[in-house]
Design goal:
There is one protein chain. Helix content is 6%, strand content 50%. 44% of the residues are buried. Strand 10 and strand 11 form a beta hairpin. It is mainly β. It starts with a helix and ends with a strand. It has a four-stranded antiparallel sheet with strand order 1-28-27-26, with no helix packed on it. It has one domain: 7 Propeller (Methylamine Dehydrogenase, Chain H). It has one helix and 28 strands.
């Protein structure tokens, strides 16, 4: 065999090994972006094509450029934000403002508020459903879902739920799924007929909160108290696995390329679960205490988590027997997690 061919084969083999090794590298924290400010926070959402990260932060939504880690805008004038949903056209976004019992519509070019639509009591999780072009706000205190037609910006349905809803997912085929936290179950809703069609119990999964979805293989990943992630068949509701994760999770994510599910945990860990075979955790990454909400960026293959530094807890009272520790002002930070 000619020597140049041997060298070419050797180089190709080396490149293959490097590529394989890179794909198998564990996740690690690669950066910290200081946001600052005061107050609590809830969900965050990546817009990979625009290289933006939306973070609900008390009475406003922070908008971060994911290429620089710098704030580019803030959507203000809100009362108590929870979640953000985006349309697929890049035109408008939707914020669940729990403090105002409303869904706020904003322009994604100017970040200006363009409408406020009344919802139920304390809208929390929110999702855009592409088949019907509707936005679904899940109301934590009134235990129902508000369905909004995005063309007319009007409420077209209010659907009663069997308990307190948490985070939703749309499958892109006319179905919405949502955790029911106080019933340890997941509901499936028909977006076309605007009806609740199924309620599925999740055995061994206490107080389900964050929810992620593998749309290609119809799998749901719900994270729960008791250090558990439940895996369900999204067509039948059959529970396929119950995986050990970190403590105090509040959000989940999914990487369709590598078929990995993620759980962000309040104990300061990120659990990575391989979903190709037996749904086992393949990595537990140390992050930072309180980093229990997350967003996955499919373009840059990065995970964003948010947390802050904490001070002392207030004294317990009968009205608040387990008070949360105080957040130290100006310590609110985004943690960037990647393979390299």
């Amino acid at each position: 065999m000619p020597s140049f061919l041997l060298r070419s084969l050797a180089a190709a083999a080396t490149l293959s090994l490097v590529t394989c090794a890179s794909a198998q590298q564990p996740y690690r924290v690669v950066d910290h972006w200081k946001v600052g400010g005061t107050g609590g926070w809830d969900y965050l959402l990546a817009d990979p094509s625009a290289h933006l990260l939306y973070i609900t932060h008390g009475p406003l939504v922070e908008v971060i450029d994911t290429q620089t880690g710098k704030a580019v805008a803030a959507i203000t004038g809100l009362k108590g934000t929870h979640g953000v949903a985006l349309d697929p056209d890049g035109k408008f976004g939707y914020i669940s403002d729990g403090g105002a019992n409303a869904v706020i519509v904003f322009d994604r070019k100017t970040f200006a508020t363009v409408a406020s639509i009344p919802a139920g009591t304390n809208p929390d999780g929110i999702a855009y459903e592409p088949l019907t072009k509707t936005v679904w706000a899940f109301n934590g205190r009134s235990k129902n879902a508000t369905v909004i037609d995005t063309a007319t910006r009007t409420v077209v349905a209010t659907i009663a739920l069997p308990g307190k809803p948490e985070f939703p997912q749309a499958d892109g085929k006319g179905h919405i799924f949502d955790n029911i936290e106080d019933k340890n179950s997941i509901v499936r809703l028909d977006a076309v007929n605007k009806t609740l069609t199924d309620t599925w119990p999740v055995a061994g999964c206490d107080s389900p909160s964050g929810l992620a979805m593998d749309r290609e293989h119809s799998r749901l990943f719900t994270v729960c108290d008791g250090k558990k992630m439940g895996v369900l068949d999204a067509k039948t509701g059959k529970e396929l696995a119950l995986t050990e994760i970190g403590d105090g999770p509040d959000a989940a994510g999914y990487d369709s390329k590598d078929q990995l599910a993620f759980s962000s945990n309040g104990d300061g860990t990120l659990t990575v679960v391989d979903t190709k075979d037996d749904y086992k955790a393949v990595q537990t990454l140390a992050t930072q205490k309180g980093a229990r909400t997350m967003a996955y960026d499919s373009v840059d293959d990065r995970i964003y988590l948010v947390t802050a530094e904490y001070g002392a807890s207030p004294e317990a009272t009968s009205a608040n027997p387990r008070p949360r520790p105080m957040v130290i002002p100006d310590t609110f930070t985004v943690l960037v997690v990647a393979h390299k």
